[in-house]
Amino acid sequence: MPHAGSPEVSAAIAQEEQLEQGLVALGIDLPAVARDKLRAYAALLYKWNRTYNLTALRDPGQAVSHHLLDSLAVLPFVPAGMLLDVGSGGGMPGISLAIARPELMVTVLDSNSKKSAFLQQAAIELALANISVHGGRVEQYHPSVGFSAIISRAFSELADFVHLSRHLLAADGRWLAMKGVRPDAEIERLPPEIAVEAIHRLVVPGVDGERHLVIMKMTGA
Fold it and tell me: Rg of the chain's alpha carbons, rounded to an integer?
């Protein structure tokens, strides 16, 4: 067991402080159980990443800013109901959102079998009853009920995102695309029946690059 003052303990304390400060900066108030699960998720992600290459980030010090806080920055814009996270990879943003909103029913989808296995294990170890995992391609996924919102983080170009997942969106649902720089060129290539409802610039504590959330809907929805 790591002793007080060891690098492991020091890193855990720093991570806890970083998460607490980041949540305050984002204006997000979470109960202690949710904060504990977020830190446990980051630790699990780092552990699996050493073998399964779930994320490009190798520095555990960036897990809080670039994974947890980056995911939670969109929380105010996620509607109630059922959420589909397309191309979830290591669970970003779906797992963090499921932890923060236990009443939100989240499906995380990825076509990579190793990533799907991690997502399943994370849901079990973190006791996330509101998470379901689907391993497979989004265009081949056909659940019986549409989703209130479909979200992705750097999954594909906007036009491809809406094209591949259109059959999964409820009639009055929304697409939420997490992007870096404002994707004006991608927006211009959207089909005419897709309307951009809002573009939000996100400020994520500890992340220097630009972050934007593009919210889209079917015209008339």
Answer: 17
